[in-house]
# Entry
Amino acid sequence: MSTVHNWQLDRAMEYPYEENRSDRQIAYVFDTNKCIACQTCSVACKTTWTSGKGQEEIFWNNVETKPYGGYPQAWDIKLLQQLDGQKWDGSRYEGKTVFENVPPGERVLGHKPEGDDYAQVNLGEDEVAGELDRGAHYMGTHHMWMFYLARICNHCTFPACVAACPRKAIYKRREDGIVLVDQTRCRGYQACVAACPYKKVFFNAVTRVSEKCIGCFPLIEKGLQPRCVQTCIGKIRLQGFISKPGEAREDNPIDQLVHIKKIALPLYPQYGTEPNVYYVPPVHVPLNFLQQMFGPGVEAAIAAYRNAANDRAALAAMLLFGNSPRITTRYAYTEEETIGYDDAGEEVVRVPLTEPYMVRAAYDARFKAYRYNTP
Ligand code: SF4
Ligand code: SF4
# Structure
């Protein structure tokens, strides 16, 4: 074991390999408050990459309803039950990670889903937490809650799948941090399937090898965002590159939301893999649930999100979501608009900070007609 620094845990931790961060690290921000569970992302991914034989139950992208949904079933609960402690002291994680709480003879703490766990991709969809009493009626804000969690491979900085593979068949690309399975080396031992805390490596029963999200690298290499990002109806997603800890840039929208404003948080940081999909937490969910899921920064993240209308740097970064198929690595903003740029400094997108709108008169004198759909 080596000692590496995991900034999400605010401490050093054990990992089977030396710390060797890629030159660039792919990263995403997903705003859970905007997801409508239309599953366009899931379908876009599936029709692009996993529509072949043996891939029937493989969803590199899925969207599940929390608290009851999960694909494979209970993927997170089963690991949380095994993890020791999960205690935080401020921003520092005092519990053990999946690399530090390992059973004898294994490399990573994990579990392999059963066949039935993959049977229903959308089990629990739209189920709310709690039950409504008989006779309940509308009384303003109610206490029932649920939210949609869109999930892909996190292209972790310290991938558990890489750590577990006895064949060294999984690797992380130096140029963008995308994690890939070399299927010519894979022998189908499925150590990665058991090890990935997010259950984002899948075993293909026809080809007898493992496979996983490839970050749409053919698009990334052309300066384009992945399919799940480009097609997102709710405009909840932004893909870019996150800077190394301590090197955050004000003009990088991902850095702005993750490192600087801390509006977007990693999913289950306590697992220890330093995942690179960052989530804006839902604003309406009990904090204790969210703290287990996104770590101790949840309350501050929600407060910063609620204040975004008064924080132009944050607002300008969030308005880039879903507004261009191209990767926006830099951005700037004026009083009126936010402007995204690519690596070469070329303008990618320009979005007004305030959506222009018109209020039409209720009576249209030209047609002598009243419009009943206007105030
Ligand atoms: S999410 Fe899972 S499959 Fe993806 S890099 Fe992390 S450990 Fe590997
Ligand atoms: S396409 Fe976007 S809004 Fe629709 S389910 Fe996927 S993440 Fe949510």
About this structure: The chain has one domain: 2-129+145-280. Residues 153-156, 159-161, 179, 196, 198, 200-201, 212, 273 surround iron/sulfur cluster (ligand 1) (CB under 6 Å).
